[in-house]
């Protein structure tokens, strides 16, 4: 008996299974606002459509009925109608529209004693420019492997000291909004991976201090900053709950804490949308 001929119809049938037969992964909490996540139902397709938002690839997952796009919305996104570019299995490209609401984030005023961390000197600027390219590359990582989970555990147990999206002022000078969640914890507290993934990069940066980037699949990347030590290396696979380093106060800080960032299709989004129970101290409006 020709085994390959026997198995071929079965394998083809598996590949053509309707999306409803695929196991749906539990999605993050949808909140279609700047800095949030939109979950957009896609047209029927026998295989996952390829989706782009503002020219960047977007996560597509089975939802039990078909497929949905899980879209990260940058903080600079304008409220109103937005559109996805959807390429179906047939090769046809269509658009899928969705609405983005408005959201006001609070302001935060921080005093930094090290003035170079607010107004870098000329000798610092070349380093900062080089590091920004490296950080952008890590956060824009695209790996077609779907994530194992979209429900995260906290990387550090502790109250929130700065919420996501805060309009920040350092020494009364306006800076970019806060693109992550700050968790207060004593120096040396272990930091654990909130979900399985692969370490994309690690390093010591001017503003972020000791930093780790983890790729979880399909454009979902997490970032951990201001660490006292790093216990992983680029290319290493990590499991959910595995220690990746420890809390510190490296880079631009006023005290020991973890800055935890989440990037989805290269958009910085609110990490609490991936948590079943936001940590204490979260007073986001």
How many β-strands, per DSSP?
Answer: 20
From the 3D coordinates, which CATH architecture of the largest domain would you assign? Distorted Sandwich
State the helix count: 2
Helix percent band: 10-25%
Q: Oligomer, anyone?
A: single chain
Query: How many individual domains?
Result: 2
- The outline comes out as globular
What top-tier CATH class of the largest domain fits best?
Answer: Mainly Beta
Rg (CA only): 21 Å
**CATH superfamily placement of the largest domain:** Glucose Permease (Domain IIA)
* Structural class by SSE content: mainly beta
Strand content: 35-45%
Mean pLDDT: 87
From the N-terminal CA to the C-terminal CA, the straight-line distance is: 67 Å
* CATH topology-level fold name of the largest domain: Glucose Permease (Domain IIA)
User: What's the SSE pattern?
Assistant: HEEEEEEEEHEEEEEEEEEEEE
List the uncertain runs.
1-21
Protein architecture, described:
With 285 residues, the protein is mostly beta strands. It has 2 domains: 17-100, Peptidoglycan hydrolase domains (Immunoglobulin-like); 107-274, Distorted Sandwich (Glucose Permease (Domain IIA)). The protein has 2 helices and 20 strands. The strands form 4 sheets. Strands 9, 12, 13, 14, 15, 16, 17, 18, 19 and 20 form a 10-stranded antiparallel beta sheet that branches. The termini are far apart. Mean pLDDT is 87; it is low at 1-21.
